[in-house]
Amino acid sequence: MNHDTPPTATRPGWGQSLYSGAAGVALLHAVRAHTGEDDDRDALRPWAAAMVKGPIQAAPEACGLYEGAPAVAYVLSFTHTSTATRALATLDTHLADVTRHRLRRAHARIDGGTLPTLGEYDLISGLTGLGAYHLHRGHKAELQDVLAYLVRLTEPITTDAHPLPGWWTGDSPELQPSPRWPGGHGNLGLAHGIAGPLALLATALRHGHAVSGQSEAVIRICDWFERWRTGSGPCAWWPDLITRAEHSRGELRHPGPTRPSWCYGTPGIARAQQLAGLALGDHDRQRQAEHALVGCVTDDAQLAQLTDASLCHGWAGLTQTIFRAAADAVDDELASWIPHLTARLDEHLDQRGLPHDAGLMEGTAGIHLTRLTDPADTAITTPWDRCLLLTG
Question: Which residue numbers in the chain have pLDDT < 50?
């Protein structure tokens, strides 16, 4: 799709969607302008205009990092104009209120002893995403409040006389209750599961943002990942999710590693654990995560499950995850595989072409942003992927 002219909006809120709408493409052009890839801001203007056309979605339960006011504010933080600075000041005040509102509801839910929805805490639409925004913007008070909530989220919960991890949800993987998922599930993914809170808790800790119980919360989550890890070293992998029946039996029914994507599967989960190892100074945990990532990118059976080039669940997401993990790794083994991954991404694009969608997570904007991340060029440091919790 042409990145110069936004199409006519096809659904309400399209302009304010970082995931699939104008906001994601505006982010691409903002980063290009910052890195010198765009000669001027002409390419950014129409997408930014499409992003802010009409009222900005600001209802607390409808605002997540990838939709509405937080998505718009995230993009504006990369534009570096006086107009953006003024707009950000207004949006930041409102987003502080949104965060407080959602935290009150989340704490009340915990006090009542009921299970959370995925949308309460996940990265895409929940409090982890809002926390990632406040970390990005340097909002210490709001960030600390989110971190304190995430610590509570990791404390065990008992339902129907059965102890469960506090992040266990009654939702199905489709983010709503379903009779096909009796007892809900435990979600391990970075996009919607507990790997997102782990990555935020660890990244904040690395930057000196700590609240009472934070290190213990990181360890609780890591211990759960350890409980559900299959294999070791480069053969280690994690499932996307745990069913209630699997939790009761204490064993998986998964036949083997799933798709090696950012959103679910080993890459995002292992990167979160690498960040945890770095935050805690736990070198064994860090190395275990890095060995799992090496095994992932060297396993043709896993790589064969990637069927698109997207940032969310395709080649771009895997490549970006390895870029960031390699920069923190104890040795150069991960970095040595980056040329292979970029070649596979290019090969996929040569064979199948770019997606028709222009958006960030499933379209061309995310692919182009990944190709801007050059591990050999330290001048390209724009942390556009903070929204993915891949970098601090």
Answer: 378-379
